[in-house]
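Before the break, one more example. Copy the sequence into your notebook; we will annotate it together after we see the structure.
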Amino acid sequence: MIRKEIIDEIKARIDILDVVGDYVNLKKQGSNYRGFSPFNQEKTPSFYVVPSKGFYKDFSSGKAGDAISFMMESEGMSYIEALKQLGKRYGIEVEEENLTDEEMEAQSEKDSLYIVMKYASDYFQEQLWKSEEGKAIGLTYFKERGFSEETIKAFDLGYSLDEWDGMLKMAIKVGHKQEMLEKAGLIISRERKEGTRHYDRFRGRVMFPIHNISGRVIAFGARLLKNNPEVEQPKYLNSPETPIYHKSDVLYGIYQAKQQIRQEDTCYLVEGYTDVISLYQAGIQNVVASSGTSLTQEQIRLIARYTKNVTVLFDGDPAGLKASFRGIDMILEGGLNVKAVVLPEGEDPDSYVRKLGGRHSGGSQFREFLQEKQQDFISFKTAVYQEETERDPIRRAEVIREIVQSISKIPDPIQRQVYIKETSVKLGMDESTLFAELNKIYLKQQRSSSRQQTYEEQEKGVADIDFVHPEEPLDEPASVGIEEAILSKEKELTRVLVMYGHHPVKEDYMVCHYIKDELDDISLKHDIYQRIFSTYYQHVDTQKSLMEKFMIEQTEAEVSRQVINLIVDHYMPSPNWEQREVYVPKKDEKILDVITRSIDQLKFDVLKFMLAQKTLELKDETDINNVILIQKELIELQKIYNKIANKYGTVVPR
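Here is what the structure looks like once it is written out:
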């Protein structure tokens, strides 16, 4: 366990803008901040941060919480992991006290994997800087590539000794378990006649640690420097997939680049580790690499957290260019603006920036080159294909379809129209022909989607059909709308209770007392709101003015999450609320007026629902005595209903 005073100190030091800002490009909107969701791909930003309350709310995914829960959601961390990470960020030492052997054994697998990866990274760095082999081979290699000591340390570069099990022995010696080293992909086991043999995965290689977004080492890339003719080994070797490393979710260099990407509002995408490091050293620090893998949607979403602008750097190989086009289409589909730059033939970003002057003048000249040569992707793709289609009309038709296919990926209709217009000029084609091809693509996609949906419905079979029970009011669909309205009003009243419950109405009489008296015996229909009410009134006399904080920090997880949702929703009300007749009080209104109206609105909808139910009862009733009784009840309900309606000038339908 972590001591409460340590947790309180971390919470006191946390700046939610600082924490969330590492993942989301936030822009000020009034007193709050808004950005694109880090959890969903979206066209319109719906992620909000309320600094005054220390909360975030993501309307696209429904997630909400504080900085700790944000770290847990973003990184897949446990509560303890998130606290440790934040403690480290703010210089607070976090120790778990009085851990038994059983508790140590029960620590999560992810915790253990992060620990062994951190050990391995430190070990490889130590070998690079202190061992004779590391200095002679690894450090010499890095310096020959022009990397400064500062850059080498910025990327935690290291060296693995050319020994069968050098790291394994040292790791075991300091207390790491062989099982966890194997799960982390640091060692390999092989079955032999004499038994199982374990050895280091990486031997005689320079090491490139791969960091996640928060800077934790999750994997390694390694390059072999000397060949052994007796043993065939791959030149490049990467960590296998593990519970903390999924290569499709990771971009090399994102940890080092994220701040600069946000500041410059653009990201350069390259292919290899050394491309990233060389550009970073030359002052172009907003650069990441896909590490030789095909670009994935997860990687694109990772870039989109920080910018909507991507510039892809290609070498001059035509085959390599065309192989990359599918990945670029995925970036377009993700709603990002894509530019492309082709380097001179035979050059890659690493070699070309060094050719232009390396660390000093090379960076400025490389920037000038990028500014001069970059062009939007559609124009770039058109130019690449144009030369090979001049004397081949069949290939020309294929190329036109491929270019229109890329344009179809762009979600913004205005951008699509602009690109169609520009492409028609470059290809000498009529705009209407290109639009017709574009429409064909969309029609084909719709048909394919429709067929897939039909297939999925057929696959479900009869077992998934929702049968309607006879007792349900089939001819009263309006009752569903009434129930939804009730839930909306319950939500607003619960928010008022949480935020203003301890405000005084008069001496020794608070808002929470007024709400309880006015509701009489009405129970809330929605379970979570009823649970919040029950929890609140259980502690109403002990927590006093700290109730809002108590409801967030000391209650069960679901109650806490919903309380945060209620509070954050107050600061970013949905534009649809007024259409749904959900009343959102303004700051300058008196609190009692707010509560009275909220309670009356809830009563109004409850009465509407009761009237609908009684009307159904009356329709089906055959006993004359019961008919008279129901009619009397309807008259009484209608009187109360009319009283509330007249109070607010609501027209009551007869």
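The first helix runs from residue 4 to 13. The chain has four domains: 4-104, 108-245, 249-373, 478-647. Try to locate both features in your own notes.
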